[in-house]
Design brief:
By secondary structure, the chain is of the alpha+beta class. It folds into two domains: 1-30; 37-145, Nucleic acid-binding proteins (OB fold (Dihydrolipoamide Acetyltransferase, E2P), Beta Barrel), CATH 2.40.50.140. It has three helices and seven strands; from the N terminus they run αβαββββββα. It has a five-stranded mixed β-barrel.
């Protein structure tokens, strides 16, 4: 093989190797930044990623916000109207954060408590992320499908046939 061909072969091989290495690094970086949106019902069902960061979405439960005196620690509860998850956050909350409003928090689960390092409140009255809206609808449908306590099955009084 003449020297020019040999040099071209090495150039092509090194270029291909560099392209493959770049593709692998990009893929690994994108996987590390992936963050799943989970609802409180999914956490209670064991569907939350273990030992990984994820997003918890839902509604801030009424009368659940507790602020620590002299610090930025805030405890509150996120609900999807079926299940509740306690949340701890240390930092300044967004201006739009309040009870009864949709919120998405980013963090991880420790002993049944979600420790958030980022809180995002919804922008206006009509905005909800598509994933959160679907999850809330599924939770509502599941709640509506469950038998209501105190509801009687069978014939009501006076409706029995002889």
């Amino acid at each position: 093989m003449n020297p020019t061909r040999k040099r071209r072969l090495w150039t092509v091989a090194l270029t291909l190797l560099a392209a493959i290495a770049a593709a692998v690094m990009i893929t690994l970086a994108l996987q590390a930044n992936r963050s799943y949106l989970v609802t409180p019902s999914q956490i209670h069902a064991g569907e939350a990623p273990e030992d990984a960061r994820f997003r918890l979405g839902g509604i801030v439960k009424e009368a659940s916000v507790r602020r620590s005196e002299g610090s930025l620690d805030v405890d509150f509860i996120i609900t999807d109207r079926l299940e509740d998850v306690p949340v701890r956050y240390k930092g300044v909350l967004p201006d739009l954060f309040r009870e009864g409003q949709s919120v998405i928090t980013e963090g991880h689960l420790i002993d049944g408590r979600f420790v958030a390092d980022h809180v995002m409140a919804k922008h206006d009255e009509t905005y909800r992320p598509v994933e959160l809206e679907k999850a809330l609808i599924e939770a509502r449908d599941k709640r509506d499908a469950e038998p209501q306590p105190g509801a009687e099955s069978g014939a009501a009084d006076g409706d029995a046939t002889p």
